[in-house]
Amino acid sequence: MLPKLVVEFIGTFFLVFTVGQTVKGPDASGALAALAIGSSLMVMVYAGGHFSGGHYNPAVTLGVLLRGKCTVAEAVPYMVSQVVAAIVAAGCVLFIKGTASPGAPATAAGTEYNLLAKALVEFLFTFALVYVVLNTATAKGTSGNSFYGLAIGLTVMVGAFAVGPVSGGAFNPAVGVGVTVMGLASVTNLIVYLVADFAGGAAAAILFKTFDMGGDRSAA
């Protein structure tokens, strides 16, 4: 049960986190926020649907319960995991948005964020990217699928919308090196890209192996 709850937590977290990052504040994505939010849900369903059912929504869990596809003993922990994930995601958004210095012209939006905020968003979306890669391109539960390229690409798109204004949205040490050489990022940002992106990828791999997410466990 715990691995499924972890998957539900991750999916709900990134859904709510994307909502907050694209809707709240002066660097919000405007009309494109809906595209980013919908895409975040889609890629998390691709990544976790084979494992937990990909609910990411207490109302969906209730529907699955009433449909008879899960028990009360399963539904209640699912709902708790989803709500806790939403609270944690909201806290992360409030922390990141709270580190903005509106007077600094370091980004297109005229807002600069501190290094910890940059490292956090790079870690989170590199984690998300590798998590989606492992679950759609290497898991038995999704073997033979034809959507993994779409899911992986859209994860990067969601990250660019959600946190691009914060860190530049590299989610890839090689991209970090490239944009630094081109003069699009500072050496300080390169250090963030290298440390946070490698850490995010490693964390996703450790989680994937620890909870044996390569199989298909969904009964929903």
What does this 3D model show about the protein?
The chain has 220 residues and is mainly α. The protein is globular. The chain has eight helices and no strands. It has helices at residues 2-23, 33-52, 58-67, 72-98, 115-137, 148-167, 173-181, 187-210.
Please identify the structural class as seen in this structure: mainly alpha
Helix segment tally: 8
Gross geometry: globular
CATH topology: Glycerol uptake facilitator protein
H/E series = HHHHHHHH
The CATH architecture comes to: Up-down Bundle
How many domains? The number is: 1
Q: Proportion of β residues? A: under 5%
State the separation between the terminal residues, measured CA to CA: 13 Å
Estimate the mean pLDDT confidence: 91
Rg calc: 17 Å
Give a count of the beta strands, DSSP E runs of length 2 or more.
Answer: 0
Largest sheet: none
Q: Which key phrases capture this entry?
A:
mainly alpha; Glycerol uptake facilitator protein; 8 helices; single chain
Task: List strands and helices in order, with pairings.
Layout: H1 2-23, H2 33-52, H3 58-67, H4 72-98, H5 115-137, H6 148-167, H7 173-181, H8 187-210
Helix pairs in contact: 1-2, 1-4, 1-6, 2-5, 2-6, 3-4, 5-6, 5-8, 7-8
